[in-house]
Design a protein that fits this description.
By secondary structure, the protein is of the alpha/beta class. The chain has nine helices and ten strands. Strand 7 (157-161), helix 6 and strand 8 (188-192) form a beta-alpha-beta unit. Bound molecules: adenosine-5'-diphosphate (ADP) and magnesium ion. Residues 42-43 line the site of magnesium ion.
């Protein structure tokens, strides 16, 4: 059984078809990357999965249960977490307390909050920063904090939208390592990322969106050599 299933999903913004009849399934325990040019509909897809947007047509199923139409907090409680690219931590609170806030929400309710907080900090490689105020963190460390906050909810599915954007190569490698650790600990990961070497290395499968349509899916080496994918990227900075 798939952990997440997207069926015939469409989203129109007035005249614009941001997502057009997209279907795919995410296997439990996998890392899947959604790639595609700017404006392809990647973030909209995350907004539809997490309930921030209602689809024009189609549905999203999590553990074979329809989640389309549920409130965002209900979807989070079922085990779907999202790491935002622009992390907005409580700057005056410690890293520990910021992650703890994540642990107070989501799947397990208010049980084992301390343990979930510590585990999330360890998986995100920020345990050594526990007592630091969030305001003291670098941009890269803030991204780790955002991932820790998301997985502290004890989510089964982590959606990460461009967690490496703006990071240098060392920071990018560290973030990719964190995503690997997260998966190793039983959390399924769906990643939106532009850094192709990282995507190719970390993903079990790729989904390629172009102008709202799913134009290719499969193992990274197969997708990378798909003529439709190459054409979609031609003339964009991502072509390299
Ligand atoms: P990506 O994340 O792949 O760069 P997005 O999902 O952000 O793309 O956007 C897909 C398309 O939908 C773009 O043309 C974007 O301008 C449009 N779009 C996204 N969100 C909204 C919105 N809330 N209202 C109107 N148009 C939107
Ligand atoms: Mg986006």
């Amino acid at each position: 059984m798939s952990l997440l299933e997207v069926r015939g999903l469409s989203k129109n913004f007035r005249g614009l078809a941001a997502i057009s009849d997209v279907s795919f399934a995410i296997a439990e325990g996998s890392i899947t990357s959604i790639i595609g040019p700017n404006g392809a509909g990647k973030s909209t897809m995350f907004n539809l999965i997490t309930g921030y947007l209602a689809p024009t047509a189609g549905e999203v199923r999590f553990r074979d249960r329809r989640i389309t139409g549920l409130a965002t907090n209900r979807i989070a409680e079922l085990g779907v977490a999202r790491a935002f690219q622009i992390a907005r931590p409580f700057r005056d609170l410690s890293v520990f307390d910021n992650v703890r806030i994540g642990a107070l929400f989501g799947k397990a309710g208010r049980r084992d909050v301390e343990a979930a907080t510590r585990r999330a900090m360890e998986l995100a490689s920020i345990a050594h920063l526990a007592t630091q105020p969030a305001s003291a963190l670098t941009v890269g460390q803030l991204r780790h904090l955002e991932v820790a906050r998301a997985i502290a909810t004890r989510a089964d599915l982590l959606l990460a939208d461009e967690p490496c954007a703006g990071l240098n190569p060392t920071e990018t490698a560290a973030m990719i390592d964190v995503l690997r650790q997260v998966r190793k600990n039983g959390v399924t990961v769906v990643l939106v990322e532009h850094d192709m070497p990282s995507v190719m290395e970390v993903s079990d499968r790729l989904l390629v969106l172009d102008a709202g349509r799913l134009i290719a899916e499969g193992p990274p080496p197969v997708v990378a050599n798909d003529p439709k994918v190459i054409a979609a990227y031609l003339g964009t900075p991502d072509a390299a």
